[in-house]
Specification:
The protein starts with a helix and ends with a helix. It has 134 residues and is mainly alpha-helical. It has 4 helices and 3 strands, in the order ααββαβα. It has a single domain (2-13, 31-133), classed as Helix Hairpins (Orthogonal Bundle). It has a 3-stranded antiparallel beta sheet. Helix content is 74%, strand content 6%. Residues 56-128 form the Potassium channel domain. Keywords: Membrane, Transmembrane, Transmembrane helix. Pfam families: Ion_trans_2. This is Potassium channel domain-containing protein.
Length: 134
């Protein structure tokens, strides 16, 4: 079940990025639609990784620690904590109140890399579009 959910999440993330780049190809880059799509891509990654953390936590794979102890609590508490950790990791804030361990470290590394790469891609694409129009 977790593999199916993970595959579905990855499919949604890839399709979100694909949609963003097809919108960029159609015309002016800095439109409301494009800003909305960029926000949607970030939200998709935030939710996608948050759900991955939650699924692993719920299936008994402790990957996050709060105050040095593995994450525990109700489903709703774990959901909000996993989404919070996902946001803090994606936006490279890293407060340190929740730390990954085990396989969670590698998942967080991938998410942090995506958080660094996305703005770079957006800026590079904008500069390329500006140069093409001149």
């Amino acid at each position: 079940m977790a593999i199916v959910v993970g595959t579905g999440i990855m499919f949604c993330l890839v399709m979100s990025i694909r949609t963003m780049f097809s919108a960029v190809k159609r015309g002016t880059f800095l439109t409301f639609e494009t800003v909305y799509l960029i926000a949607l891509v970030y939200a998709s990654f935030l939710l996608g990784f948050g759900v991955i953390y939650l699924i692993l936590t719920q299936y008994g794979f402790p990957i996050l620690a709060e105050s040095g102890r593995p994450l525990y609590g109700t489903y709703l508490e774990n959901l909000t904590t996993c989404l919070y950790f996902s946001a803090v990791t994606l936006f490279s804030v890293g407060y340190g109140d929740i730390t990954p361990f085990g396989i969670g470290r590698w998942i967080a590394i991938v998410q942090a890399m995506i958080g660094y790469i996305l703005p770079t891609v957006v800026v590079a694409k904008t500069m390329i579009d500006i140069e093409k129009k001149q």
